[in-house]
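Here is the promised in-class demo. Please do not try to memorize the tokens; focus on the logic of going from shape to residues.
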């Protein structure tokens, strides 16, 4: 592991980079960036901070930013594997959340975007459809037994379709997982 003598990002956070540097002393190419352990009892800092503690990134860098394919392991137990651009999740990737939920699909500027599916461990169900700027826009909720619920982009009656093909129109009581999918 190397401390970049000309890389203020790495020196400021006492991060260790195992890989090559560009002419300006920034991580470049394949390598591993390991963040220092969190100081007790302070909380770990998540994505987007140069003060992140307790995590690591293994993959490609360009001009000091995560770029291309890579894996980020977060201090709280989350993990992302997939494409990066300008230091943010961008393109196709999979995020494993600490509580057991999994999102697989498109990302843009660090947020869920495009086609994707989120498996909700607590519900044993999946939200499959379109995401925009981190929020679930439209698609369907597929339950463990194969039944599905259509969720539209505009307020409209929801259509529940059982595994046997029977349809019912009505309202839905939002689950915590759906609330997270719609609002984060």
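The designed amino acids, position by position:
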């Amino acid at each position: 592991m190397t401390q970049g003598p000309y890389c203020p990002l790495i020196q400021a956070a006492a991060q260790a980079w195992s890989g090559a540097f560009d002419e300006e002393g920034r991580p470049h190419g394949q390598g591993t960036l390991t963040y220092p352990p969190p100081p007790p009892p302070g909380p770990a800092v998540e994505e987007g901070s140069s003060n992140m503690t307790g995590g690591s990134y293994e993959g490609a860098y360009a001009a000091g930013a995560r770029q291309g394919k890579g894996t980020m392991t977060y201090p709280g137990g989350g993990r992302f594997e997939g494409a990066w651009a300008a230091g943010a999740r961008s393109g196709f990737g999979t995020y494993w959340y600490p509580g057991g939920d999994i999102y697989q699909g498109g990302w843009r500027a660090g947020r869920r975007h495009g086609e994707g599916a989120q498996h909700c461990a607590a519900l044993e169900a999946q939200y499959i459809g379109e995401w925009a700027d981190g929020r679930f826009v439209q698609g369907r909720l597929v339950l463990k037994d194969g039944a599905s619920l259509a969720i539209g982009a505009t307020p409209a009656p929801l259509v529940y379709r059982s595994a046997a093909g029977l349809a019912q129109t009505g309202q839905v009581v939002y689950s915590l997982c759906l609330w997270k999918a719609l609002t984060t």
